[in-house]
Amino acid sequence: MERRSFLRTAVVGGTAAAALGAVGTGGSAAGAFGGSLWRGAAAAGTARPGRGPYGAPLAADARGIALPPGFTSRVIARSGERVDGTSYAWHSAPDGGACFADGTGWIYVSNSEISPSGGASAVAFDGSGAITGAYRILSDTRQNCAGGSTPWNTWLSCEEVSRGYVYETDPRGVRPAVRRDAMGRFKHEAAAADPVRQAVYLTEDERDGCLYRFVPAEWGSLASGTLQVLTAGEADSGPFTWTDVPDPAAAEKRTREQVPGAKRFSGGEGCHYADDSVWFTTKGDDRVWRLDLGSDTYELAYDESAISGGGPLTGVDNITGGASGDLYVAEDGGTMEICVITPEGEVAPFLRIDGQSDSEITGPAFSPDGGRLYFSSQRGTSGADSGGITYEVAGPFRKRGGAPARNWVSSLSLPPAPRL
């Protein structure tokens, strides 16, 4: 993807982690702060750079990752090379990702943003974090950028092309992927499932794109349902409604052009749901937006154009939530950082990748216990799609009330097979 514009500061806004079995895009299934903290901070208009919960990153390690004290990194996979201990060669241009609990271990899935082959792959881990396998879960698609997980343990892989599709995939790679036509044809970016309202929110990577909601006919199946678009005024905050899209297949008119009054967003990117809020980013104007689903209102959580001077966050792209309610925002370009925005209204760099200025950070997602963060440098040190590197960072990520995450993965039973 093209290098993003700079995002020069941060504001408060956020979400708690999704409940177990209902993880949003790359979200953690561990405990979370209550949404009242976020709402209180947002109402106060707080926007302050600070040290964050972990302090400033130290000097870069041997892998070029600058981390706070107590955290370590390792390389999980490199594009074109076999994943350690497996015969599987990792895909090029790794992008959006998510983690899924799997018995005593977990699976990290990752899209491939290349065309025409695209698709997605997965790496499996045991309860200690050792790699146990790697494999393809989706093939023969185009420019698979972001996506999102579902409460029934499937990965939604989205095509970021004109008239693109959403593909529902099995993280274990056992069941074949299924194209979900009812979710519409447009330049898909990210998806976030809302188990409370039984809907999936979808961003659109167009300069005049929209935000959509897909309401399945039956929760747990995406085979049929209603695609809706957010309609609102031209202001940057206010009430919104959902309006049905007449022709999701866009046979005669582009999806985003079918409904008068559809709210325009400049280049929709990451999307994350939790605690009655949807957070999504727009790269064209370096903004972070929040939908308050309890009041049916939307607001700007961050607006680069309203900030004088610089801040710690210099790019806006993928977004996910930690077990503490913190938001983690990955930079596309900028200073190649993942920044953390806390419910208390503090924003700070969490990590930085050195020596990879021609790349972008993609696919941040937490392991189910909240103790490991996975992400990729899409083009690595080479600046080419074939140079992608996927990393893991482990350490004392905080949970509810600031306590470090604990490992409860070993107590999980194997979840049921995905319904595709």
UniProtKB/TrEMBL annotation:
It comes from Streptomyces inusitatus. InterPro entries: PhoX, TAT_signal, WD40/YVTN_repeat-like_dom_sf. SUPFAM superfamilies: YWTD domain. It comes from the Bacteria. Gene3D superfamilies: YVTN repeat-like/Quinoprotein amine dehydrogenase. This is Translocation protein TolB. Coiled coil: none annotated. Residues 399-420 are annotated as: Disordered.
